[in-house]
Design brief:
This protein is mainly alpha-helical. It contains seven helices and no strands. Helices cover 75% and strands 0% of the residues. Helix 2 packs across helix 4.
């Protein structure tokens, strides 16, 4: 087992914690009597966080091409993953106490979207730490960081809807169009 595979086990367990929090919240929501107060936008963001988590897990596998020689590389794998866990816990309220999902997203927007922005910024830093430069695919990610920060501080629902659409476009449509080879082209070691 390589060093990278060892650290990928840790990262995989951490991502599984985030995913289990999301899936657990969906299960509690299905079993509860509070279904009428579910906000489609809030539900959409929980699905987006799941998609981001899985895409992130797939996206760090190209780092296998690089030797882990610095502690910074380990932190570059761990820190974004910890941010995903924070996002998963922030976006999934206690079902009984959550009240209206629409109000929850507006009331907790700073913690949710700030953690998402930090997560994406840390993934760009991870690229720099592992491959020595930031690939051109980081530009749309930095746009998303800006949108997440706007969502964190602008209490407008339309901003969250727009950002959700851009997020889904980036994390679903782009990988489908580029395919895995195109998506990971910057990580090739010749």
């Amino acid at each position: 087992m390589s060093q990278f595979e060892f650290f990928m086990i840790i990262v995989s367990v951490l991502i599984a914690i985030a995913i289990s929090e999301l899936a657990g919240w969906w299960g509690r929501l299905i079993r509860s009597d509070y279904k009428a107060s579910v906000d489609p936008l809030h539900l959409g963001w929980t699905v987006a966080v799941l998609i981001i988590s899985v895409t992130y897990w797939i996206g760090i596998w190209p780092y296998t091409e690089y030797d882990i020689v610095h502690v910074a590389q380990i932190w570059a794998l761990i820190l974004p993953t910890l941010c995903l866990i924070l996002v998963a816990y922030a976006i999934t309220p206690d079902v009984v106490q959550s009240g209206n999902g629409r109000d929850y997203m507006l009331d907790h927007r700073r913690s949710i979207f700030s953690a998402l922005a930090v997560f994406l910024a840390l993934t760009v830093v991870a690229d720099w730490v592992f491959i020595g430069f930031v690939p051109s695919s980081a530009l749309p990610m930095l746009l998303l960081v800006g949108l997440y920060m706007l969502c964190a501080y602008v209490p407008k629902r339309w901003m969250q809807v727009l950002t959700l659409a851009v997020t889904l476009l980036f994390f679903i449509f782009l990988p489908i169009v580029l395919g895995l080879d195109g998506l990971f082209e910057a990580y090739r070691v010749d």
